């Protein structure tokens, strides 16, 4: 909430006739946010059949859509939105950046055309709360005009140093804020990092084992190196800012489509640190995201054992030589609840989770 605003006004609609803002952002499984270019006929044709196979389908209008295709992408998304029954699958979009020639018409046309179908609007290159305030008021006006009965939520991509510095105020700028994603490519450029990739690690970012001896021979001898995670600090900051404001953090894009192994590692780091999902740029990344962002059968089995062993949830017990108490129980409940929420929308996962025997 902006410092100058009173608490009672924070949850008031920003336009007469706009839907009432939500006081809590409900958790909806969104392990993979699958990007497609609605101006690409081949890709767009695949979208209706992808309903139910991925938690979120996102019609991308920003980077990766050619400037000449911006209008076709916007119109294409409206057509797909109107003609497709999305069932349990969420429909999101990424609009063009707020300083671009397209953002205003993106918002106006999408809310009018498919505002009743759109769950979340992703806003790229968010710099501070002022960007969210602009979108917030405009959306309220457009929702009122379109007669919508539920607010469209807003998701910010962190892809500038200023956006990172303002991450907490961005998360708290509006009751519409649903979550954050990392934009590693733009963020790297803005920070003047020396990477040339879309997300993932870098072999030069490492620590090296100490030399066995302090002389030249020891220094030049083979020494094990350990590649470090370039995105650790950024993801951890995002996770804290989101948790503080009751909204949801996501990893983002992994551009090396062929390297499914490193993609899985990067996604898992984000999952373990607290992210609820990631992006998929290519159909083959959906399965990786589902695997990583659904707790494993082993983790659920362990979590359920701890819940059972902890009885009323207080005190300390020994399980397999390890101490469990109120705090480890809370962690286990995070896993158990997530498993229940995912099982409710994913019949395959439900079968696996239901078959777990708690020993
Ligand atoms: C990577 C690309 C070029 C490879 O495209 P390709 O055609 O070379 O791939 P393929 O393996 O040959 O494709 C096989 C089949 O799958 C289809 N296909 C392929 N992709 C998709 C898809 N996403 N959804 C649905 N279908 C898809 C494709 O059309 C083809 O169909 P076909 O068998 O009938 O010929 C392509 O997958 C693509 O354009 N993906 C989306 C890229 C994108 O959205 N990028 C923007 C997000 S990342 C970003 O912006 C950074 C950020 C956050 O801003 C920052 O860090 O700053
Ligand atoms: Mg970007």
UniProtKB/TrEMBL annotation:
Source taxon at top rank: Bacteria
Concerning SUPFAM superfamilies, the annotation shows: Phosphoenolpyruvate/pyruvate domain
Decide whether keyword ATP-binding is in the record.
Answer: no
Cofactor(s) needed for function:
Mg(2+)
List the coiled-coil residues.
none
**Keywords from the named record:** Lyase, Magnesium, Metal-binding
Q: What InterPro entries does the entry give?
A: Aldolase/citrate-lyase_domain (IPR005000), Citrate_lyase_beta/mcl1/mcl2 (IPR011206), Pyrv/PenolPyrv_kinase-like_dom (IPR015813), Pyrv_kinase-like_dom_sf (IPR040442)
Domain annotation HpcH/HpaI aldolase/citrate lyase: ranges: 33-198
KW Metal-binding (keyword) present: yes
* An MF annotation (GO) of this entry: lyase activity
Specify the protein name: HpcH/HpaI aldolase/citrate lyase family protein
Annotated organism of origin: Nocardioides plantarum
């Amino acid at each position: 909430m902006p410092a100058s605003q009173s608490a009672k006004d924070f949850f008031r609609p920003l336009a007469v006739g706009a839907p009432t803002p939500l006081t809590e952002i409900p958790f909806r499984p969104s392990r993979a946010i699958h990007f497609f270019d609605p101006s690409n006929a081949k890709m767009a044709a695949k979208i209706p059949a992808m309903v139910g196979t991925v938690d979120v389908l996102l019609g991308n209008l920003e980077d990766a859509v050619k400037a000449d295709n911006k209008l076709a992408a916007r119109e294409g998304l409206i057509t797909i939105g109107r003609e497709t029954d999305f069932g349990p699958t969420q429909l999101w979009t990424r609009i063009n950046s707020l300083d671009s020639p397209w953002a205003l018409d993106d918002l106006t046309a999408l809310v009018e055309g498919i505002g009743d179908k759109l769950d979340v609007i992703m806003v790229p290159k968010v710099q501070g709360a002022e960007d969210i305030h602009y979108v917030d008021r405009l959306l309220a006006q457009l929702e009122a005009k379109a007669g919508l009965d539920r607010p469209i939520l807003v998701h910010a991509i962190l892809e500038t140093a200023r956006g990172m510095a303002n991450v907490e105020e961005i998360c708290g700028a509006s009751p519409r804020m649903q979550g954050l994603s990392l934009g590693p490519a733009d963020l790297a450029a803005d920070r003047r990092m020396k990477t040339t990739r879309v997300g993932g690690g870098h072999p030069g970012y490492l620590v090296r084992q100490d030399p066995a001896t302090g002389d030249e021979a020891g220094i030049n001898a083979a020494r094990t190196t350990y590649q470090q995670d370039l995105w650790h600090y950024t993801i951890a900051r995002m996770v804290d800012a989101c948790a503080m404001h009751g909204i949801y953090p996501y990893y983002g894009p992994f551009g090396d489509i062929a390297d499914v192994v490193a993609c899985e590692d990067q996604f898992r780091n984000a999952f373990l640190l607290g992210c609820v999902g990631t992006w998929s740029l290519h159909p083959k990344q959906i399965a990786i995201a589902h695997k990583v962002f659904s707790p494993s059968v082993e983790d659920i089995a362990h979590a359920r054992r701890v819940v059972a062993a902890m009885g009323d949830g207080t005190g300390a017990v020994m399980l397999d030589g390890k101490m469990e108490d109120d705090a480890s129980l809370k962690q286990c409940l995070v896993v158990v609840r997530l498993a229940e929420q995912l099982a409710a929308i994913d019949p395959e996962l439900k079968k696996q989770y239901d078959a777990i025997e708690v020993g």
